[in-house]
Amino acid sequence: MTFLKSKEQELTERLRKGLGPVPTEISPALNLEGRFRGDHDLNPASAPLHEDIYTPAAVLVPIVLRQEGPTVILTRRATHLAKHAGQISFPGGRADEGDASAVATALRESREEISLDPGLVEVVGSLNTYITITRYSVTPVVGLVKPSFTLKPEAGEVSEIFEVPLDFLLDQQNRKKHSGFHNGVERFWYAIPFGDYYIWGATAGMIKDLSERILIK
Length: 217
Known about the structure:
Blueprint lengths: L1 H17 L17 E3 L16 E10 L6 E7 L10 E2 L2 E3 L7 H13 L6 E6 L2 E3 L4 E10 L12 E8 H5 L5 E7 L2 E10 L2 E4 H14 L3
Parallel strand pairs: 1-7, 2-8
Antiparallel strand pairs: 2-3, 2-5, 3-4, 3-9, 6-8, 7-8, 10-11, 11-12
C-alpha cells in the first residue's frame, strides 16, 4: 500500500509540475499571444488568424489511479453523429452559457456523456488550448479519478467507454504521423493505434502535449 501511494504521489507531482494552471474562466476569444496547439501543428496552412472566431469548449483528460497502474478514460463517439462520428475522444464538448469555467464545462460534459461523478475527480491542471480545423478552441482539463466509479455511455453521443494504460499513451514509439487527402489537399495528423481503437487527430494531439510535459518511464 505504501508503494502504491508513493507512485500516486509521484504521478501527481509530475502533473502539477508539468501542467498549466487550472483554468478559472472561459474566454470566447482566442488569444493568439498565448500558448496553443492544434491541427495546424502539422498543417501550417490552416493556422488560425486574428480575425478567426472559435467556439469555446473543454474536455476532461481523466487519469484513473488504478492499483495496476494509471489508465486514461476515452470514449468512442456515436456513429450517427453529424460530426466526428465513431471517433475516439475525451469526454467533453462546447461551453454552455452557465459554465463558470473550462473545468465546469469538462466536468459537466463528463457527467452527461459517461456519468462520471465530479466528486471523484481531482483537477490538477490543464494542457495548452487546442485549436481544431472545425473551429473549436478546446481547453483540455487534466484530472485524477478515483477508481470507485460506475460509468454509463449516453446513447445519443457515446457508443463505448474504455481505458488505455497511461504509459502506453505517453510512449512516443506508439505515436505515428499519418496522412491522407481531403478535397485534393494532403493533411497530416498524429495517431496512436491501440488494439481495435484508432486514436487520432485532436485527441492524439492533446496526448502528445501531455507526454511532452510529464513523460513517465
